[in-house]
């Protein structure tokens, strides 16, 4: 089953949960700094604004692209994204207070403290959590096994591009050269595991979850190979620099894979709720491991 990659908010729900926790801590800290501990006791205005801030945080995350490529961001880009996200949330909070005419209940100083504290906490939390996620991805045994099928002419460039992704969710386990007999050779530290006439015998014996297809042939050749792979339950990524009609394949998804524009087809794709459930289990697993 292939996981749709269209919504970064689902892929990075752990960061949304982390941001909400940092927001709660920051707002509590800002209120205590301004008004003391006693201000938290039975304070309806405090609880109302806390709920509004959490809701706004979720809405901004759902509507924006704050988590796109979050694992690849540098330090300065990450700081910029955190600042923009916090500024939008606070601007929306001020809009809420203006519409509800509740400005007198809240101190502007609290929101000033909130912006500073939340930016520092969220930025630091992102850096730490990204390191955890990156390490887990690199060492994960759950990474999908990817087989590359490519013409010889573009093979080395194809492998280099696929390997250039630092934090990939796949592991290249082998190569099959479409137009040459090269079984046993090694290309960019990846073994040529079979020739084309042995491909399906190899797939029956070895664990292969996905195939990256980089063939510049006629559509029927690629389509035949793709259909045979799909019948075996293997997800196929097709380099769409070589056009292939989407209408002939089940569940087509166009997306970016290590800098390559690909069309991915699979017998079944994960739904929104399946992705949410899996991401929650992943988060729970990380918490248990690093506890």
Molecular structure report:
This protein is an alpha/beta fold and 291 residues long. The chain has 2 domains: 8-139, no CATH class; 144-272, 3-Layer(aba) Sandwich (Rossmann fold), CATH 3.40.50. The chain has 9 helices and 8 strands. An 8-stranded mixed β-sheet has the order 3-4-2-1-5-6-8-7, with helices on both faces. Strand 1, helix 6 and strand 2 form a beta-alpha-beta unit. Helix 2 packs antiparallel against helix 3 and helix 4 crosses helix 5 (108-139). The two termini are 30 Å apart. 22% of the residues are buried.
Q: What does this entry show, briefly?
A:
With about 290 residues, the protein is an alpha/beta fold.
Uncertain residue segments: 1-6, 243-247
Q: What proportion strand?
A: 15-25%
Give the total of domains: 2
Succession of helices and strands? HHHHHEHEEEHEHEEEH
User: Quaternary state, please?
Assistant: single chain
Given the C-alpha coordinates, what overall shape results?
A: elongated
Protein name: Sugar transferase
InterPro entries: Polysaccharide_Synthase-Rel
Keywords: Membrane, Transmembrane, Transmembrane helix
Transmembrane segments: 12-33, 45-62, 74-99, 111-129
List keywords for this structure.
alpha/beta, Rossmann fold, elongated, about 15% strand, about 290 residues, 9 helices
């Amino acid at each position: 089953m292939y996981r749709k990659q269209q919504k970064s908010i689902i892929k990075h729900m752990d960061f949304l949960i982390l941001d909400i926790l940092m927001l709660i801590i920051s707002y509590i800290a800002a209120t205590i700094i301004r008004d003391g501990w006693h201000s938290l006791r039975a304070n309806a205005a405090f609880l109302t604004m806390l709920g509004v801030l959490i809701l706004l945080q979720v809405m901004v995350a759902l509507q924006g692209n704050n988590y796109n490529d979050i694992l690849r961001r540098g330090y300065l880009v990450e700081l910029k994204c955190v600042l923009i996200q916090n500024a939008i949330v606070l601007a929306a909070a001020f809009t809420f207070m203006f519409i509800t005419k509740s400005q007198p209940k809240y101190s502007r100083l609290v929101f000033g403290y909130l912006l500073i504290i939340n930016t520092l906490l969220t930025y630091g939390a992102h850096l730490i959590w990204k390191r955890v996620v990156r390490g887990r991805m690199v060492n994960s045994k759950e990474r999908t096994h990817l087989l590359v099928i490519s013409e010889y002419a573009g093979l080395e460039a194809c492998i280099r591009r696929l390997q250039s992704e630092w934090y990939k969710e796949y592991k290249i386990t082998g190569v099959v050269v479409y137009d040459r007999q090269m079984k046993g050779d090694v290309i960019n530290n990846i073994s040529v595991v079979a020739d084309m006439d042995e491909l399906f015998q190899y797939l029956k014996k070895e664990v292969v979850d996905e195939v990256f297809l980089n063939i510049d042939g006629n559509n029927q050749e690629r389509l035949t190979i793709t259909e045979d792979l799909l019948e075996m339950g293997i997800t196929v990524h097709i380099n769409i620099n070589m056009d292939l009609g989407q209408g002939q394949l089940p569940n087509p998804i166009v997306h970016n894979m290590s800098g390559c524009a690909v069309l991915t087809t699979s017998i079944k794709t994960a739904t929104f709720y399946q992705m949410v459930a899996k991401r929650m289990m992943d988060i729970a697993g990380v918490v248990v491991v690093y506890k």
